[in-house]
Structures are given as structure tokens and as C-alpha cells.
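Hey L., structure's done. Input below.
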Amino acid sequence: MYQDFLAARITQLRLNLGVSARDMSLTLGQADNYINHIENKKSLPSMTSFFYICEYFKITPQEFFDEVNANPEKLNALVADIKRLDENTFTHIVGIVRAILGKKSGIK
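Output:
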């Protein structure tokens, strides 16, 4: 079960970045088939390697296991940008997002 999730999640995140399994493996300092073996459920990464994989994707381990968030790196960048907004602009953005989702803002 965990092996299936791990393989699928690494594949999803890697494809979102548009990088090959081989290039990712080599960037991590591993053999060229390292990620391929994980994605094909032939092996599991060590905890240290898992942390390096998370660093590669620029996400935390918690974000890695957040199945609902298909693009954690993009979400993190968006949140960083939103944090730089003034209060009025932030309130408008929240209202727009909630309107798109069909929810009332609740922010005054």
C-alpha cells in the first residue's frame, strides 16, 4: 500500500516538473535507474534518500504525503507571493477564490 503510494506520488511530482526519472536519479547522486526502481516498486528509498527526494521537489515530507495537493511546489510559491500582499489586496484575492469555488468570503 505505502509502496504503491510512494511510487505514484514520486511519478506525479516528477512529471509535474517535466523531468525524467534518469535525470532525477542522477541529480540525487544515485544510479541512473534509481527513481525508476522506486516508481516500478522494485525498491524503496531510505529515510535519508526520502528527505533528499523531498528537497528535490522543494516540499516537506508532510506535503509529500498530502494526496490532495497535486502541485505542492506551485502552491508554496503562490502562498509566498500572497504573503507579500497588502491586507486589502489579500481580502480581494480571497473573495475571488471563494467566488470561483462558490463559497461566501466571510472576510470583512
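The first helix runs from residue 2 to 17. The mean pLDDT is 91.

-- N.
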